[in-house]
């Protein structure tokens, strides 16, 4: 009988500790109110853009993307478990580049760069024709998406589950030089662009 009551007592103590820890974590997150990081594009350059329109239309391009990231949380660090930058045109994915996992301290900001290339990749002819037609007019409306998985950390001790989300930066009018001079044929984003969670 005494053995049963000791076991019940220890089970009750453990249960109270678990409930207290869970309540503390819930209260902590209600008080701290974690905010997602803020993203915007500093720069997007597209070079070596070449379209071939035949039975199997192809696209060649190199994308250089600079992404500004700010952690607005005064007490929470953020770990980026994955961070991918995706280039697209007219709702079609063109290519992507991954950025290595990183850590961001509370209330800090910084930029990360991604580069990815598409070499003679076959796409639907309508997509390649659309890019070629816009390039002939001097601007191409590409889009960039940022796909990331993050965790919030409180003093490096308490962490949240992984939260995944996608941001889109569109339309991005990249301006190309009027002449088809191959040595300077780089399309550039003229002004930074905000990105929005979709």
From TrEMBL:
Lineage, uppermost ranks: Eukaryota, Viridiplantae, Streptophyta, Embryophyta, Tracheophyta
PANTHER family reported in the protein's UniProt record: LATE EMBRYOGENESIS ABUNDANT (LEA) HYDROXYPROLINE-RICH GLYCOPROTEIN FAMILY (PTHR31234:SF55)
Transmembrane segments: 6-32
Subcellular location: Membrane
The protein's name in its UniProt record: Uncharacterized protein
Record carries keyword RNA-binding: no
Source organism of the structure: Cajanus cajan (Pigeon pea)
Keywords linked to the UniProt accession: Membrane, Transmembrane, Transmembrane helix
GO cellular component: plasma membrane
SUPFAM superfamilies: LEA14-like
Any one GO BP annotation for this protein: defense response to other organism
